[in-house]
Design a protein that fits this description.
By secondary structure, this protein is of the alpha/beta class. The chain contains two helices and five strands; from the N terminus they run βαβαβββ. Helix content is about 20%, strand content about 30%. Strands 3-2-4-1-5 form a five-stranded mixed beta sheet, with helices on one face. The two termini are about 25 Å apart.
């Protein structure tokens, strides 16, 4: 079995605890569904947000979804001029038999602009 990376990103409506948790849960669910994953398949997850999102740790949404045995880490993205504001990103490290080309990366809402090449594969 291999470990593969699964990427995802979304935008968050507001810098509130509720909005961050809602957006994170929506993105995690979409990533899991698109790749046929459950939490047992996930070795670790790295959550990042743009610096304007700081009202809650996105990883809490994973814990609330039952991901209690998954190693989780949060951080902020670099402050690059012109980068997408109110953006939440997730990198999952998953154990899978899938080829890299079979992994589905998910970009939702305003984050679709980050990877227009994935538009046909995004939720």
């Amino acid at each position: 079995m291999l470990t593969r990376g699964v990427r995802g990103a979304t935008t968050v409506k507001a810098n509130t605890r509720e909005a961050i948790l809602e957006a994170t849960a929506e993105l995690l669910q979409a990533m899991a569904e698109a790749n046929g994953l459950d939490s047992e398949d996930v070795a670790s997850a790295f959550f990042t947000s743009s610096p304007d999102l700081n009202a809650e740790f996105p990883a809490l949404a994973a814990r609330q979804m039952g991901w209690t045995d998954v190693a989780l880490l949060c951080g902020h993205e670099m402050q690059v001029p012109g980068s997408l504001p109110m953006c939440l990103r997730i990198l999952l490290h998953v154990n899978t038999e899938k080829k890299a080309s079979e992994i589905v990366h998910v970009y939702l809402h305003g984050a679709r602009v980050l990877r227009p090449d994935f538009e046909s594969r995004s939720g």
